[in-house]
């Protein structure tokens, strides 16, 4: 089946490829891609072919593309892929983000938020896609259903960031998440939400994890709220110093 898809993808038009993909079940196609990816067999060419035959101008194409995209995200997180294969898939997924209509971007963003706050990330590799999805969301015109409201792309991004920052973060990915936000266009209010969340996470990390987090936080503060960040960092170390002195006094 994969050879058939690849041969049709080589034709000048995508009509035959689209027609053939329509005859396949989405789950079967996703399983085929997964098997090829795990075996390390030219998954890039197959993924490009599937995307070419799944235009977002058609509902069936959009649904198929969403299914494949989600499966690829799960694959990258699974740790079952060779490093080169995972990187190739991530690169292709990045290129395809802007093709999605607004509603699909909202769904993808919610999948990420559920994975982050639900603690189901395995290696965090797929987080490279999240900033691109949020950035693409801002460019979409018209109203989008986000939660119970109909919002613009910009408003939807704000609500998604608020939902993410109000949820639980696994301490293993705090540094990665902080770094991720530097690639997202943020309003002053959104920067404040992110900074507040990250500063709250300081007390949950081991001391040796603090320096790289401070570094990422200072980079992020170039977008704004630098004073608040510095105050938060100083307050954390002052409290740490107070606790240390209290422990020493107790020992004596």
TrEMBL record:
GO MF term list: DNA polymerase binding
InterPro entries with a match to the protein in the record: FANCI, FANCI_S1, FANCI_S1-cap
All copies of domain FANCI solenoid 1 cap, residue ranges: 1-53
Domain FANCI solenoid: 64-249
Pfam families: FANCI_S1, FANCI_S1-cap
GO biological process: DNA repair
Signal peptide stretch: none
Name by which UniProt lists this protein: FA complementation group I
Organism: Pipistrellus kuhlii (Kuhl's pipistrelle)
UniProt lineage: Eukaryota, Metazoa, Chordata, Craniata, Vertebrata
């Amino acid at each position: 089946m994969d050879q058939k898809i690849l041969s049709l993808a080589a034709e000048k038009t995508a009509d035959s490829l689209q027609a053939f993909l329509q005859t396949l079940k989405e789950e079967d196609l996703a399983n085929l891609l997964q098997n090829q990816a795990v075996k390390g067999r030219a998954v890039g060419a197959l993924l490009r072919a599937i995307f070419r035959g799944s235009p977002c101008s058609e509902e069936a194409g959009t649904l198929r593309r969403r299914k494949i995209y989600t499966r690829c995200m799960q694959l990258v997180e699974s740790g079952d892929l060779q490093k080169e294969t995972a990187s190739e898939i991530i690169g292709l997924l990045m290129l395809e983000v802007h093709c999605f209509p607004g509603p699909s971007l909202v769904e993808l963003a919610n999948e990420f938020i559920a994975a982050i706050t639900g603690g189901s990330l395995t290696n965090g590799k797929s987080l490279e896609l999240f900033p691109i999805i949020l950035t693409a969301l801002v460019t979409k015109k018209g109203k989008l259903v986000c939660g119970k409201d109909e919002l613009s792309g910009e408003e939807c991004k704000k609500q998604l960031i608020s939902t993410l920052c109000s949820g639980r973060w696994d301490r293993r990915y705090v540094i990665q998440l902080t770094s991720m936000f530097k690639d997202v266009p943020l309003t002053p209010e959104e920067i404040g939400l992110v900074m507040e969340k990250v500063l709250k996470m300081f007390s949950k990390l081991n001391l040796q994890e603090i320096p790289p987090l401070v570094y990422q936080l200072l980079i992020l503060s170039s977008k704004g709220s630098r004073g608040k960040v510095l105050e938060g960092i100083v307050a954390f170390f002052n409290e740490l110093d107070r606790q240390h002195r209290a422990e020493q006094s107790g020992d004596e």
